[in-house]
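Q: Please design a sequence for this.
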């Protein structure tokens, strides 16, 4: 059986996340449990880093050449940057409970760490299907 990753959380956003770190860590553990049944890749640690909109915009521009605020950026080393202000804003616009939206973002980020992408339509469909399977699996519990 594979060991769960070490999960570190850093909140540099100056804001409440709107969800507990415990909820995020438990979601990650459940997603890992689901993915590691079918994936060979091992991820030993993750850092969840919560930052301000101007900081995530700078990172998005630097690494993805998109000069805009985004909800989350995931890096291969296991660093996942979240922007709580943008997450709250988009969850409200989409009328999605904040916990569910964070859950979706965590799943999406972890799939990227396991090598899934959505740049090509065929790969996007695979990733979206897997996201839905994981969400259904998590919400059954």
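A: Design:
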């Amino acid at each position: 059986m594979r060991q769960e990753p070490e999960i570190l959380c850093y909140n540099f956003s100056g804001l409440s996340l709107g969800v507990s770190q415990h909820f995020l860590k438990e979601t990650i553990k459940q997603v890992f449990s689901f993915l590691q049944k079918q994936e060979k890749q091992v991820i030993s640690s993750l850092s969840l880093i919560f930052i301000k909109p101007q900081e995530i915009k700078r990172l998005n521009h630097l690494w993805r050449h998109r000069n805009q605020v985004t909800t989350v950026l995931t890096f291969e080393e296991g660093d996942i940057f979240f922007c709580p202000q943008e997450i709250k804003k988009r969850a409200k616009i989409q009328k999605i409970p904040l916990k569910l939206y964070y859950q979706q973002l965590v799943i999406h980020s972890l799939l990227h760490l396991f090598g899934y992408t959505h740049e090509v339509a065929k790969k996007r469909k695979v990733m979206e299907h897997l996201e839905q399977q994981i969400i259904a699996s998590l919400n059954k519990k």
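Q: Thanks. Anything notable?
A: The mean pLDDT is 89. Residues 121-140 form the longest helix (20 residues).
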